[in-house]
Amino acid sequence: MNVKREGVLCAAAGVALSAAAVFCIPTSASAASSGGAYVALGDSYTSAPFVQPVSTTAPAECMQSDDNYPHLMAKDLGLSLTDVSCGGATVSDMTQSQYPGVAPQFNALSAQDKVVTLGIGGNDDNTFITAVAGCGSLDATDPENAGAPCKAAFGNRFANNIASDASNIATALQRIHTLAPQARVYVVGYPDILPQQGNCWPQMPLTTGDVTYLNGIEHDLNSMLQQQAQANDATFVDTYTPTIGHDACQSESVRWVEPFVPGSSAFPVHPNAAGEAAMAKAVEAAVSG
């Protein structure tokens, strides 16, 4: 089976790609003139579902955009891109097939790679979906903006799960160094989703108390990713700080993350095209620096 990626032709030895060894050969398009081979790994905040235009080379299940931050960064820096980011991915999908016919993301890595980005962690233990859907459902019963129903229901559960996931992130980073020993590795954090104070019911149906609570959860996640990057010879890219003020509660022309009901082409509570562009700038600055 042959799999055509941007700038790379991968031939799988065997019938099932997810169980096969993958051999990658640079195609003539960019290898000679590019700034190096770049592999993008990650979940939906990397793949950018519904952001137009949709990638015609990635598996449809992964909902990958041609204007996500890996594609934008590769164009700006002249890198030869292999983007295997996939919506819904967890750390386990780095080493196992997420969908039938979709290879483990680490299969894309090779000794020739110069840059690897990893944007992962939000889906482990269903952290994001539980926080967004669970808290939204609980707070929908509290239109008077009283208290923090989600915090009362979940307490330290999210923080404890994030802390327990640290070892999985560390193992993933160590494996990347083994598979791509020449690559500089960048762990990309998550952008600002909610305002720093107040709320915006019903755009994001959360009480002020739970906005503060969920901001704390995202801070915990980004802090864990930063700590594991620093401990495992990788660079953490802060996409949270430069996106403050462009959260899902802002107007359509200002926000970089869409609310529960998107106003532009993007998945709910995910970066839109402007958000992916902002993330690209943050990653480019780290890579260039």
Could you characterize the architecture of this molecule?
Strand 7, helix 7 and strand 8 form a beta-alpha-beta unit. The longest helix is centred in the C-terminal third of the chain and has 24 residues. The strands form two sheets. Strands 5-4-6-7-8 form a five-stranded parallel β-sheet, sandwiched between helices. It has a three-stranded antiparallel β-sheet with strand order 1-2-3, with no helix packed on it. The chain has one domain: SGNH hydrolase (Rossmann fold, 3-Layer(aba) Sandwich), CATH 3.40.50.1110. It is globular. The protein has eight helices and eight strands. With 289 residues, the protein is an alpha/beta fold.
- The oligomeric state of the chains shown is single chain
Widest sheet: strand order?
5-4-6-7-8
Structurally, how many domains make up the residues? 1
Helical content class:
25-40%
Strand count: 8
Give the overall shape.
globular
* Helix count, DSSP H or I runs of 4 or more residues: 8
Instruction: From the 3D structure, determine the CATH topology.
Output: Rossmann fold
CATH class: Alpha Beta
Cα-to-Cα separation, first versus last residue: 39 Å
Q: Which structural category fits the helices and strands?
A: alpha/beta
Query: Radius of gyration, Cα only, in angstroms?
Result: 19 Å
- Largest sheet at a glance? 5 strands, parallel
- Looking at CATH, the homologous superfamily is SGNH hydrolase
Percent of sequence in beta strands: 5-15%
Helix/strand order: EEEEHHEEHHHHEHEH
Uncertain segments are: 1-34
pLDDT averaged over residues: 89
Q: What is the second-level CATH architecture? A: 3-Layer(aba) Sandwich
